[in-house]
Structure formats: C-alpha cells, structure tokens
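Hello K.,

You asked for the raw outputs rather than the summary table, so here they are, unedited. I folded two proteins back to back in the same session to keep the settings identical. This is the first:
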Amino acid sequence: MSSTSPTTPNSSTTPNSSITSTTPAASTTPSSPIGRLAAAIGNGITRATDRALGPYQSAIIRIGFSATWLLFLLREFPHRRELYGPDGPWSWELAQQLIADNDAFTVLMWSDSMVWFEIVYGVAVLSTVLLLLGWRTRAMSVLFMVGVLSLQNRSVFMGDGGDNVLHLMAIYLVFVRCAQVWSLDARRARRAGERLEREGRASADRVGPALWSVLGFALLVATFGGLVPGGRLGGWLTFFWGLWAVYGLWWAVGRIESDAKPRVLLDIVGNLVHNAALVVIMAEACLIYAAAGWYKIQGSRWQDGTAAYYPFHLDYFSPWATLSELMSSSGTMVMLATYGTVIVQVAFPFTLFNRRVKNVLLAIMMTEHAVIAVVLGLPFFSLAMIAADAVFLPTPFLKRLGGLAVRGRDRVLRRVPPGRGRTLPGPRSEQPPSLYEQTGTSGEQARVGFTA
C-alpha cells in the first residue's frame, strides 16, 4: 500500500498551498487552556488504550518474582512439611480456624493428607518454573498466584517481610501482560507470524484449549464441592470463574477471521487492565518505601543515627559474624547507613518525576538490598524488593541487559554441535509482537485504542 494518498494536495501545484500548509498547524495547537486540557486528556486516553506499556518492565518483574519464589521453594524443599505441611507447628486445625475467620484462600485446606500437600507443592514449583520461562503465561500466572496464596495462607507466621510483597505481587501479575518479550509465548507468536507469512496459514493451537479445559474441570469440581470460600458473588469463586470465562472468550474471539473488531476491542480492554495493574504495582512499591521511611523517622534510634548498628549484633541477622562486626565497627559508616536509608526511602516516591535522580536512588536501593541479603542473611526479602524495584528500571537499560543475555546464550549454544532440525540462534528482534502478529491477521496494522 502506498504511503502517499492520491487525494493528498501537493503544495507545489495547488493554488491554496499556503492555506493548506497553515491550517493543520493551527488545528493541532489549541490556544485556549480548555483546548490544551482536552488535548492532554485525549493523548492520555490514547496512550492508555493504544498498547500495553512497559513490556520490558513487565517481563522483568515476572522473571524476578517467579525466580524469587522458585529459589525459596527449592531451598526449603527438605523442610517443606515442617513449614507448610501437616508436620508443622501451625497445625491444620489452627489454620482451619484462622481461615474460617478471614476467608483467606488456600487449597491446602481442602485436605490434611500428606499426598495432597505434596501435589500442591509440586504444582507450585512447576507453575513457577513455567511462569519464569513465560510458557502459557496467562494460565501459569493464575496457578502461580494459587501456589503463593495456598502456601503462605497455610502458615501465616512463616516469612521475613518479603512474603508480604510476593503475596501482593502474585495477585497483580494475573492482570499484567508480562509475556510480550523474553518469554516462550513471545517466541511462539513470532514463529506463528513467520509461518503465516511463509505458508499463508497459522497452525492450530491445541495446548491452550486443553489446558483451559483441564483448569475449568478442576474449578467445576471445586465449585460443586464447596471448596472455594468467599461466596458466589464478589468472592474467590467469582474471581476464578471470571478469569476462566475471559480467557475462553479471548481464545474464541481470536479464532474469528472475518472481523477483527472484537479482537481490537478485547485488546483495548487488555491494555487498560495491564496499564492499570502496572500503575498499582508502582504505587505499591512507592507506598512500601514511603511507609517504611516515615515510620523510621519517628524512631529515636533512627533519629540519633544508631539504628543500623543493632541488627549487626543479633544472632538471627548475623550469618557472617566477621562481616557484621566489620560493618558496625565504624561509627561514621553506621551513621551514614542509618540516615542514608531513611533519606532514600522517604525521597524515592518524589523522585519519579526526575528520571536521572530516580535512576540514581534506584541503583542505591538495589545495592542496599543486595547488602542486606548478604550481611543480614535475608536473601528472599531482598530479592522480592529488588524485583519490585525493577518496575522502575529504564527501558534502554533493560534492552541492553536483554541483549547481553541473548549474546551470552548464543555463545554457549554455538559451542554445542547442532542436532537434527536445530539451527543456531540468530539475531532476535526485541520489539514485542503486535496484535496482528499475534493473531495472524495480514494487512496493514490499524491503530488500536480510543482516540479523543
């Protein structure tokens, strides 16, 4: 299709060329404050509905939180029965009494048998691995959330603060389109687009409907068994059935080839939900730091600059006694760590309006969490906070990070002799596939989103 319309006037031949060249400029620049406000609102609506923002940030928080939870599950695998199983000090009866009061969701309350616990723990590990890889991300994000809520709500006293962050983020990830890049889903969509362009037809997806059917059958059994708490209107049952119905509708609409409007409409809704969830994740991270910083200000030890000294001398927070002693041996270092922590936590939410200052404080906070992981022995708390901080990382940095990872992978794979049907990896595009590349619709891509 030609980029120049035959009806477009040419300024060199049209008598009214001066009018033609000045009229659009005057119409696109509102002179009144109300016009500028309307234009700003229109641009904001278009931006919120046109595409899913932050594809690389969404991917990095998916990878970060799933990796954190996976490492925790693997490290605690020998002690899983004492932490969350029937052998734990927080017995099944006590957990049942607590959940009856707060209506928390956990599938571990469906049975107190050891076999059921092992199945739930194994599914939690498997779904976390698949979410980390980005395989069938929509379904795996739901299973990931179920695994996190089931284990944490079974034994509410197990955790170090990072479990609360992971608890919330596992729910938010269900609404985020976090597989646009750096995922097996993105690779599958790209290959489907290449096959459509090469052969003129798209391959049928059998895994998705099968997975959707299996999860629907499990949900049906849980519904008629009265296993999901919260009632049928506004509770967990409505939440899960709503997700199941929406995913089924998304798949069904994607099979319609005669009309692209339903797919465009669903994509607009998906973009709105994704962008809203991303804003909630950012607000949650800011709220965590703001609350922590302002509560610290009220403490006398934080006011006199000695608060950082005491954790270094607690046995529970001193896995490396020599290193803890070295960190607390200098009064100046303790004072800088104490005041610096408060300043960074209080100031960070206000620096989001200045990109350079925000990036500096972001690097400081991530470094601080890395130090906490090593010196105080809180690796999973630190990993959870670093994963939450990653939502603020700049896109150019994440692209360079992804490029380094791809080059490192290619160097490793090139040393392995290729087998039958396997080719050495070539360059990969880092741009997320568009809606039409994912659905296999040919033709010029139309603009997706409401314009105002």
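The second followed immediately with the same parameters:
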Amino acid sequence: MFRSLSGVNYRIWFAGALVSNIGTWMQRTAQDWIVLTQLTDHNATAVGIVMALQFGPQLLLMPWSGLIADRFDRRKLLILTQTLMGVLGLGLGLITVLGVVELWQVYLFAFALGVVSAIDAPARQTFVGELVTNENMSNAVALNSASFNGARLIGPAVAGVLTAAVGAGWVFMINAGTFAFTVLAMFLLRKSLLRPQPRASRERGQLMAGFRYVKSRPDIIVVLIVVFLVGTFGFNFAIFTSTMATVTFGLGASEFGFLSSIMAIGSVAGALMAARRAEARLRLVLVGAAAFGVFCAVAAFMPNYNLFALSLVFVGFSSLTLMTTANAYVQTTTEPAMRGRVMALYMAIFAGGTPLGAPLVGWVADEFGPRWAVGVASASGILAAIAILIWMVKYRDLRVRLRLRGAQRSRVRYAGDGLPATAAVRVVRADAARADSGRADSGGTTLTDDLETEDRETATTEIAIVEATAPR
C-alpha cells in the first residue's frame, strides 16, 4: 500500500505536500465561512461565485498551463507557484485581521489564487512521474489523494476551532506559512534521483497536439466526461455541507468544519484502498460513480445532523474511489511527453466546471433547500455511471442477455479495458448446467463465453464475466 514511500524523494515530497494541504483546507473552510456568515447573510450563491472564481482560471488557461508543465522544469515551476500562493494567503490574512475585508476583495483573491493554481496543478500532478518508477505511479497518485484528503480530515476541523477562537484572518496567515514546507521540500529533493520525463518540443502546433492525442483515446474521453459531470455538479461539498449545517440543522462554524473532516475519513479510506491496487481500471470508475450517486441520495434524506455526518463517510469513500482511479488511469496510460497537457485538460474539466456548477448548486440550495443541492450531486454520479456503461457497450463489447425458455439464462460479455489478455476470469452458477470454456481471439482483446444448459426443466442462472487482465 505504501510502496512509493520507499523512495527518499517521494517521502520528502509527501511530507511537504501534507503540511501544505492541511493549510489549504484550513483556508478553504475559513474563506467559505466568512463569505457565508460575515460578508453575506448566509448566501450560498456568493460561496458558489467564490468557488467559480477560484477554479475558473483552470478552464481558461488549460491549453497553456499543460504545455508549460510539459516544456519547463517542473521542480522550479512548483517553487514559483507555491511561493505565489503563500503570498496571496498572507495578503488575504492581513486584510481580514485588520478588519477591512470586503466581499469583492475575497472575489479578487480567489481569482488570483485560481490563476496561480491553474499553472501549479498540471505541474504538481505530473511531477509524481519524476519521483517514482512507472510501476509505482498508480500507487503514488493514490497516496497523493490520501495526503490531500488526510489533510482534509485535519484542516477543516482546526479551521473551525480557530475561526471561532481567533478569527478567519489568522487561519489565512497560517496557511500562508504552510506553503514554505512545500518550497523547502523542493530544495531538499535529491536531483540525482529524479527521473526526468520527455519534454514537449518547441515546434509549432504543440497545443493542438494534446487535443488530437485525447481525441484518439475514447477511453480517456469517457473518463473526462465522468470527471466533468461529477466535478461540476457533484463535488460542491463546501456549498451543501455549509448550508446543511447552518440552514437545515441551525449549527455553527465548528459543526460545519466537522462535516468536512468526517467526510475526509471516507475519502482517506477510498484513496488508501486505491493505493492497494496494482493498476487503475475503468470498471472501478463505474462502481465509484454509481456508489457516489447512491450515497449522496441517502445523505439528502438524513433527518438529523449526526446521521447526515455519518452518511458523508460513504460519500467521501465513493468519491475518492472514483476520482483517484480516474486520475491514476489517465496518468498511467498517457504518453509521458503528453502527460502535462492531458492532465491540464483533466484538471480543467474537473475544476473548471465549477464556474458552471457551483453557482447553479448554490442557487438550488437557496431556492429549494440544501437537500436538493445534495440531490443534484446524486444525479451527477448516476449520469456518470450511465456514461461509462454506454462506452463499455460501444467500445468494449459489453453485452447482457437474459432468455427464458424453460431455463433462465443470463450472459454478460465484456472485453475489458482493451488490453492484451493474459487470463480469463469466469464466474458461473448453475443448478444443472454445462458451460463451454471461454475463447480468446488471436489479438486477445475480445473474449466471449457461450453458456448452455442441459436441464430445461430447472430454472438456471448462468453468468460469465471475462475481462482482460494484462498490466499496461
């Protein structure tokens, strides 16, 4: 589960990122709180606008930020972006402590932070490839998610207590200091152990080359569709947890911070479970999306604060299972020279959909109530699962057939993730049945099972599931 930590460079990076992530979650919680309770009268739409301004630049700058990550030294780039984010946190903290902060200023700082984050995100995501071997890439991506969500377990709770005790301004200033840990980690890395990745050439057309590459990969396209649906309409946790805590249950800052932390318990568990897997598979993205939709629906109906908090554990688990697997799949199956541009597109769709989704979900919470906002998240997960099923039917030959003629017979055929097959996995339950063995074609990418039953008098259920299992 923790095999990536065997490398000294990844250990240094992991430690610095963990401290910085804690500060980031502290600032997010305090920022949402002052907008919701100090600068407005519990206006969820204003919270949505802040989120839109903070994440929107990733969509606008996506073509250039990905190319920058592919072309320049990512370590030096991260030193620059992390320093700038620390300066912005310090500035917001100072005007808040001095008592002169206004809503438009929070909007301005959120937008500036979004611009810097747009450059930082693809470089930070792809820098992992320079810290670990290809075999440990999926594990490292999952541990990064565990770090981010482990910080989410600590940061919001600490922010809630500090906001109530000393005010949000000091929370912003503490966050500014945490960026120094990431910058220090960059300087402590052993350059001789870094694994330089191929750089994008400086010839013309490199921006469009990234789009052409994604267009040629229908599996990546369907992952991006899933990320768009869930990231835009489902991952607006700050909106529906803040409004559920304050509007629905009538509670305060500490209880709001606790909701983010309790959801992080499930998120960390989901990320660690993903770290145990040797490779990321699309079928797990499907399961994660469907589970996210179901658990959000359950959360929307919870009658009191304690049950709502408990349901968020499962929301967190399913959401991180989905997103960690999707992220790892895209990174591990993308050519190294294209990885920055592809991950920039991934992050732009994930975070850049927020300008559309966050104000809309905030409006739903204001007009129809916070429970309906959670319902929007539920619908996004179900639609994402349907999108993957449609893709599997079209590109991976997924078939489900049920015939009743004296005997009940079901057949499921699925060609897997389009990989060279080395093994066939078959699950059959039959009361009195004879099943022909599965057959693989010469390419190994299409596998089918034909099931027959001899006893026509007894109802028989036969299910055969065959999937390609070769490593990428």
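Residues 48 and 359 are 4 Å apart (CA to CA).

Happy to rerun anything if the numbers look odd on your end.

Regards,
P.
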